[in-house]
Amino acid sequence: MTVLEWTTLTLREELLSGELRHGEPLKQDAISSRLGVSRMPVREAIRTLAAEGLVIERPNRKAIVAPLFADDALELFQIRAELECLAVRLSLRGLSSKQREHISRAHEKLVVSPERDYPARHLEFHNALYAGAGPRLKALIEQHIKLAERYLRVERSRLQVTEEDREEHEALLNAAMAGDTELAVEILHPHIAEGGRAIAELFSRKDTDR
Question: Model pTM?
Fold first, then answer.
């Protein structure tokens, strides 16, 4: 791994974890000193992260961590819903026995997952549903999942897994096993979009309280 790759990876994790708070200025000198690297990889890493939507670059001013807004959360999850539904349509066509087994195992892990591991198992199950989609589409989905993760990490303690969530996951599993692509999409789209609306509502309340 190069210095630039390591710097980008480290800053990305700090952004996604909330260690670097939204709206916070990114001071290149301070970051390079803290990470023990020169300013050049820090500058290039910030450009990469700006292209990913995690950072906002401003002319003649310091870059800042991209702010978190209710409208942005809503849009992110709407885009995710459309992308993941397209991926599921492409992936579930002619599902192989190996793919079925992959989806089934991912669901089994999700069902028995302790709360601390639930987010990772949840993502694995969704990934399994569209594992057969093309690399470009999966890269787009991954990008938007990373952006959405910032909102999820901030509000995760207030977002509870409901019985309805579990029922929807089981329904998704059954639709996939039956090869019923349209039913899977019919379940998946609101499953993702409603999550976005719940998060947007929480951030709307925060904005109102300020």
Answer: 0.80
Rounded Cα–Cα distance for residues 2 and 66 (Å): 25
Rounded Cα distance between 137 and 194, Å, is 22
Q: What are the backbone angles phi and psi of residue 78, rounded to the nearest 5°? A: -65, -40
For Cα atoms 181, 166, 191, give the angle at the middle one, nearest 5 degrees: 50
Which residues are registered as beta bridge partners of 61? 58
Half-sphere exposure of 63 (CA within 13 A, CB side): 23
Identify the residue whose tokens are 């885009």: 79
Cα–Cα distance for residue pair 49/159, rounded to 1 Å: 27
The token pair that represents 24 in the structure block: 């916070």
Q: What is the mean pLDDT of residues 9-28?
A: 89
d(CA 45, CA 11): 8
Q: Spell out the domains of the chain, with CATH numbers in brackets.
A: 3-65 (1.10.10.10), 70-209 (1.20.120.530)
The amino acid present at 5, given as its one-letter code, is: E
pLDDT in tens, 50-99: 988 899 998 878 899 998 888 998 999 999 999 999 999 999 988 888 99
What Cα–Cα distance (Å) separates residue 186 from each residue in 82, 84, 145, 171, 175?
11, 12, 20, 10, 10
